[in-house]
């Protein structure tokens, strides 16, 4: 997998959103959602994106789907076609359309096939995702959450994408249904040689599904590597805390972080390492900007953005 060709790549991508304007209406304050993301997605892999709320995961998904443009840097789709599966199938499916039209909608805009041919195609896709022929003429409200997500997956497949962005694809589903949907996604990836970008705050879903994982903090990737390596030996202090923190009601997301430390906002980006103010390993050297460099475990492709935890920096 590490030698697989690249499906798409991002080079030093920045995205900022205007959040305030001067008296002439010109933006003068920004939310810095992505701050230099460099990343490639390989053909046939599942790349996981993890990080706490507000780190830029949705902005990254929207960028991949062409819904937001980089303010700086380059996004090269390399000719790949992309589709997305959203978290909540309840709101992502048009309630007025029957299942077969929902499934074929992404291609109906471009193709002039007759409705009989489209329906036949929908039947094949429905069967591949575990729906039955009699489901084709029903409407979304007649289905359970898991079945609706199967419809959303069939819909994404109908456009024959190279890459599917999975934005929290199972977090709206009952635990018992989550595994079925994840297994279905795994089977479809193998059958169709798809690439997935799996965005999730659920570390165990990423561990189960992904070949590689990228950890985001305040719009930057702070660690990337084979999922096995990152989970076995997390290098960046943020990743360590993220993996150690067990979500509990009322508990802070990062339990190892002292509670009197300030969470830096993305309107005034910190100098140096973005995680510095919350980091248990912070030293004077963290006041300098941190570059991605090989993590100290000598595993090829395992990189992190921390001078304390890296072999040497690639400046
Ligand atoms: N359209 C927008 N206008 C202003 N700020 C935005 C906009 N979209 C995102 N942001 C800001 O950019 C940052 C990243 O947001 P994003 O939604 O990408 O994070 P996230 O990791 O997906 O969070 P969550 O898991 O809560 O959805 C946040 O601080 C957010 O407030």
UniProtKB/TrEMBL annotation:
Domain ABC transporter: 8-243
SMART domains from the UniProt entry: AAA
Key word Transport present: yes
SUPFAM superfamilies linked to this entry: P-loop containing nucleoside triphosphate hydrolases
InterPro entries according to UniProt: AAA+_ATPase, ABC_transp_ATP-bind, ABC_transporter-like_ATP-bd, ABC_transporter-like_CS, Oligopep_ABC_C, P-loop_NTPase
Cross-referenced PROSITE patterns: ABC_TRANSPORTER_1, ABC_TRANSPORTER_2
Biological process (GO), any one: peptide transport
Pfam families, A to Z: ABC_tran, oligo_HPY
Keywords noted in UniProt: ATP-binding, Cell membrane, Membrane, Nucleotide-binding, Transport
GO molecular function, one term: ATP binding
Keyword Phosphoprotein: no
Family, per entry: Belongs to the ABC transporter superfamily.
NCBIfam families in alphabetical order: oligo_HPY
Protein name: ABC transporter ATP-binding protein
